[in-house]
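Private note to self, pasted from the team thread so I don't lose it. Backbone tokens:
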């Protein structure tokens, strides 16, 4: 009988790609999502339970079967800019939803937890690429919520025997190479889909935030991970946790960064279209360079990115958006 995995936020961007990987690995998957940002069309297989993490009763009902082996948690608010404007929304939602999920796990005696964290827990980097041992000094409320949940997980391990792996990563990008899944955020704030939606006429303007960074071309440099590689990392983390029962904090990165202008240029090459942009000041909290070390992920999980070159990322995203978005 297949092992049953509970995926909170499994109808979202990263969650849906991970569900696909889990099913390909032979797991049975229960997807728990309130569909506020998740999409039914991103569910390729598995059982969908429409429920809200803020509703303890719906969670208890979802866990009542008693056959769940592990939980993967993707459901959270993710917009850094919004977290500055409305920190109460982020603290109340991200923390309470996670606490409710953990409470349901403890009551159901589910001991294994994979957490979708963020390299935002590190704040302004003192070392590049950022190792897991880097000081934890998040500079925005979104990053703070991820750090608080990591601290909660450590306390829950001591008190309740919970075993977890927290995966810290930046910029998920791209789309399923098979063309079945992709990015459908509303509103969309990520660089690559914003560029592609601009080319498809879905965005009136494209704004480049910050042209005075201390980088070679004066624009910010970021670490982009193909969403399929990221989904694979979650499955490998699950296998490792089930095999070892050892809690870990693990970065998922590529050790390679691309500037905003490099992404724009590569997008122009792949699409064959010119991108006209407006220069805007830096956004609050933007830092020049962010790269997460992949050394521990390779060593502990055996993770090796297959699709995370920038050309594959943009090509798969372009194919997805052209298929799902009508050009205006």
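Design output:
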């Amino acid at each position: 009988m297949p092992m049953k995995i509970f995926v909170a936020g499994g109808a979202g961007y990263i969650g849906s790609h991970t569900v696909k990987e889990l099913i390909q690995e032979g797991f049975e998957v229960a997807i728990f999502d309130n569909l506020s940002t998740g999409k039914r069309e991103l569910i390729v297989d598995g059982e969908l339970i429409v429920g809200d993490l803020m509703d303890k009763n719906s969670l208890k009902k979802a866990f009542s079967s008693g056959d769940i082996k592990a939980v993967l948690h993707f459901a959270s608010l993710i917009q850094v800019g919004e977290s500055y404007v409305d920190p109460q929304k982020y603290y109340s939602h991200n923390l309470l939803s996670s606490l409710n999920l953990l409470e349901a796990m403890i009551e159901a005696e589910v001991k294994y937890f994979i957490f979708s964290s963020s390299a935002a827990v590190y704040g302004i980097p003192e070392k590049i690429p950022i190792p897991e041992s880097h000081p934890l000094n998040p500079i925005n409320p979104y990053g703070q919520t991820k750090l608080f949940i990591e601290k909660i997980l450590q306390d829950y391990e001591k008190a309740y025997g919970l075993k977890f792996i927290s995966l810290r990563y930046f910029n998920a990008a791209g789309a399923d190479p098979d063309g079945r899944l992709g990015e459908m955020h509303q509103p969309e704030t990520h660089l690559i889909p914003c560029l592609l939606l601009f080319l498809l006429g879905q965005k009136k303007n494209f704004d480049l935030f910050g042209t005075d960074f201390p980088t070679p071309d004066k624009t910010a440099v970021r670490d982009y991970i193909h969403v399929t590689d990221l989904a694979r990392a979650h499955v490998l983390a699950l296998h490792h946790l089930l095999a070892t029962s050892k809690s870990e904090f693990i970065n998922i990165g590529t050790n390679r960064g691309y500037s905003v202008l490099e992404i724009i240029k590569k997008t122009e090459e792949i699409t064959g279209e010119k991108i006209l942009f407006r220069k805007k000041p830096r956004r609050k909290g933007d830092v020049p360079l962010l790269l997460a070390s992949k050394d521990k992920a390779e060593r502990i999980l055996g993770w090796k990115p297959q699709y995370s070159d920038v050309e594959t990322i943009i090509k798969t995203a372009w194919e997805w958006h052209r298929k799902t978005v009508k050009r205006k």
